[in-house]
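Bench notes, afternoon.
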Amino acid sequence: MQTAMKAEPFDAGRASGWTTRRWLRVGVTATLAVLTALGALGGWAVWRTSQITADLVDRRSPALIDAMRVEQALVNQETGIRGYGLSGRREFLQPYAQGVSGEKTALRRLRPLVRGDARAGADLAEVEKLAGIWQERMARPVSAAAPQDAAKLTAERAAEGKTVFDSLRRAMVRQQAHLQSEREAATHDLRQAVSLRNWMFAVIAAVILLVAVLVFEGLRRGVTGPLSRLGAAARDVAQGRFDRSLTGTGPADLRQLASDLDSMRRRLLEELQVSEAARRLVDEQAQDLKRSNTELEQFAYVASHDLQEPLRKVSSFTQLLQRRYGGQLDAKADQYIAFAVDGANRMQTLINDLLAFSRVGRVHNDHQTVDQEAVLSRVLDDLSVAVEETGAEITHDPLPTVVGDTTQLAMLWQNLLSNAIKFRSPDRPPRIHISAAREGDTWEFAVSDNGIGIAPEFHEKVFTLFQRLHTKDAYPGTGIGLAMCKKVVEFHGGVIGIDPAYTSGTRVVFTLPAVVAAPVPSAPEARP
């Protein structure tokens, strides 16, 4: 059975079907593998350097220093013993005492430093052995002897002490030479480790730079380049060159995206051709509609004027009949005459309202700054009789200046306040309040009353032409007032509606454009 498998060759055709995600996944995996291997090598180099540094700093150098301190301590002891033996003076024993203390301290530090090193341990054992012999045969007896006996004892053991101390000195020289060689070897290893670490980091930096260049170039060729070309082609199509085809390069998903965009382009081209034909048809219909609307407005205006004269005759003669023959005929005749008079009056009122409705936006179209305080004051003067008869109380917040037509805005306020007075509650006098609040570039007005209110299902219908919620016997009118208000507000670029949250009556809310303040010029610099 074969144990080795033959490596599968790279199939360029199959790789051309890879998506951007797959290319990125493979590239990121390979990059991470390379960076992981380099990171492991760099970590090993750093660890190796730190180990050698720690051995050199924490063991080799302190061991050499402590060995030198041991030698210095023994030399101090030998100097003190020799001085005391020659002079017999006790003050010469002070270097000896200091040397004994220094030797103990240095040996206590040196023993753990050479533990595990056979040669350094043997050197230290030899030094300690010879130092013990010298101290036993020379140092301790002389230091313990009386001053008069110290010279004699020193003279007797001088040759033996010199021989032992010379052997001790040679042992310490060998020990220090061995420690120095080990320190130099460790220093050499540290230099090699640092050099290896630096080369390793240089290689890692070069590989990272190479990977970055390869990633950048791969992204440029496989992603950003195809996307840039596709984006340029898409912008050309967006600017109106619908005949330019969109072809994609790079990974499979980008080519599929280009294909989808090209399909969309072809679909848009077809839709554009259809919409262009439809637009021409709509333009023709819009022109026809505009002409028809103009004719209808002219017809309504002319019809309203032409109907005024015969209607006035009908109204006048029916009123003459009522005044001359009222009470002379039977009750049925008086009732019929009353019906005729009432119908003529209502027809005249309806024609006048239709005439006013048709004039909105056509006759009065003088947009300027309008002081709402002044307009409201004139409207309240016109409604003074109705206000006095019903006992209505009308209050308002400070009203601003807006942009609009004075005549149309006066019609708006008159219709809203008239409705608030007309549809009052029978058990309390009308209380009407007008509020105004700034909302950005518009003013929001609200007319609130305590009347009978409007049911929620009729909040939209009341603004429809000829829409009435009550009979003419209960509340007279033509059903044009709120429709005219809506037309005036929309003509000024605002919106109007009923506030559904207000339940104590009716609150009509509408918006009008505010006056945009011109920038204030900077004041000229005052002259002294």
